[in-house]
C-alpha cells in the first residue's frame, strides 16, 4: 500500500513539474515577443593626440590642500644639474621640480610666492633642503617663474599639496 501511494505521489509531482515548466517556457516566449530590442550605432571618432612640451607638467584633476604658509624656499645650484636625485631621476634645472624632506616622490605641489602672488606647480623628485630653516628647494626654472627679484636666492612661499 505504501509503495502505491509513493508511486502516485511521484507521478503527481512529475506532472506538476512538467506543467510548470511549460508555463514558464510560454511566459518566456511572451516576454521575448513583447520586448523591443533597440540597436545603437557606435560612431568611431579619431582622437587627436595632444602634444605636450617637454618642460610642461601635466596636472591631474584634484584639489590643492594647504600645507604650510611662510615657508622659506631656495633653488638648486647649477652644479647639481644632470646628477641623479634620491628618486633615481636625473635633475634638470629647466624642469618644474622640487626637493622636500617629507613629501613622497611624485607628489604634485603648488608653490605660491606670498609677496607677489605668482605660483608654480612642481613635482617632488628629491630630498632636501639640508640647510636649516629652509622648507623646500626648487629647480631654477620654477624659482625664477615665481620670484620678482631675479638676483635673490630665497623667497617666502605658501605650499599646497594636490590631493586626488
Topology, element by element:
Elements: H1 2-34, E1 63-75, E2 97-100, E3 108-113, E4 119-126, E5 136-138, H2 140-146, E6 154-163
Parallel strand pairs: 1-5, 2-4
Antiparallel strand pairs: 1-6, 2-5, 3-4, 3-6
Explain how this protein is built.
The chain is an alpha/beta fold. The chain has a domain at 63-163: RlpA-like domain (Barwin-like endoglucanases, Beta Barrel), CATH 2.40.40. The protein is 24% helix and 27% strand. It contains 2 helices and 6 strands; from the N terminus they run αβββββαβ. Strands 1-5-2-4-3-6 form a 6-stranded mixed beta barrel. Strand 3 and strand 4 form a beta hairpin. The protein is rod-shaped. The model has no long low-confidence stretch (mean pLDDT 80).
Name given to the CATH architecture of the domain at 63-163:
Beta Barrel
Biggest sheet, in brief? 6 strands, mixed, barrel
Strand percentage lies at: 25-35%
Shape: rod-shaped
- State the helicity in percent bands: 10-25%
Q: Regions with pLDDT < 50 over 5+ consecutive residues?
A: none
What's the CATH superfamily of the domain at 63-163, by name?
Answer: RlpA-like domain
Rounded Rg: 34 Å
Ends apart, CA distance between termini: 77 Å
Oligomer: single chain
CATH class of the domain at 63-163: Mainly Beta
Count of helical stretches: 2
Q: Which strand order does the major sheet show?
A: 1-5-2-4-3-6
